[in-house]
Amino acid sequence: MAEINIPFKEAIPGKYERYLGPYLYEPYAVLTTGMIKGSPQRVLEIASGTGRVTRHIARNIGEGAQLIATDINPNMLDIAKKQVEAPNVEFLVADTQDLPFPDHSFDCVFCQFGFMFLPDRQKGFNEAWRVLKPGGQFIFVTWDKPENNMTLHISQQTVIQYLKHSPPPFYARPYSMSDPVELKNHVTLAGFTNSTIERITLFGECPSAMDAAIGFVEGNSIVHEILSYGPELLQTIKERIVEKINAQVSKDPVRSELNAWVGEAFK
User: Fold this and answer.
1) Predicted TM-score (pTM) above 0.90
2) What pLDDT is recorded for position 13?
3) Cα dist. 64→30, 40, 86 in Å?
4) How far apart are CA 231 and CA 214, in angstroms?
5) What domains are defined for the chain?
6) 81-109 residue pLDDT tens
7) Cα 192 from Cα 267, distance rounded (Å)
């Protein structure tokens, strides 16, 4: 079963990176890349998306080390290639559940906010273990429950409120791995015996609630569902999200709490 390739196409990846990248993903990118131990010579990033973590990894490991960044979606990688210009980085379209690398190929494997989208999540963890060298480091991040990430939760609930039908299954997937017991089981079943999983609270900053609303709605494939009702609904939903964020979370500029599970394991 192939990894789910959510249709991030046309303008969606660009808006996802522009409006959500600095706000939601940059804080955890800085945190996780600061966790790199030793001096890895070969690093793999899976589900690399638009390259936000990629840029930090490349900088941290130095030009003498190699980084391969993979994603199932070529449109996301097209954005990443523009964001990251480093001679030691190679981009590759690949399925996280079936990585095209031999056993024991990498000193370190990263996956930030990617495992949630796998049809068979255990295969993803198994593959991370397989391609790691003995003693290699594995770092991954998944979102905590939506209600613990209020601006995300507000956006999701507002969109659902305005749709006449249930949203596509992919819409709930970003928040579908918030159980630390499940995460620990995946890590253990993959073969890791030395691991930690910790709920980490950080803060994201966004210039305005409208910027956040654009990212949540137009930087997500749910925008196609919304536009099927007409362009007026798109504007209505964004305005309603802005009202709720400003009332319930923060006035502009928006500063909000983010919560995610950060895992680290060694082979």
Assistant:
1) yes
2) 87
3) 21, 10, 11
4) 14
5) 12-146+171-205+260-266 (3.40.50.150)
6) 999 989 999 999 999 999 999 999 999 99
7) 6
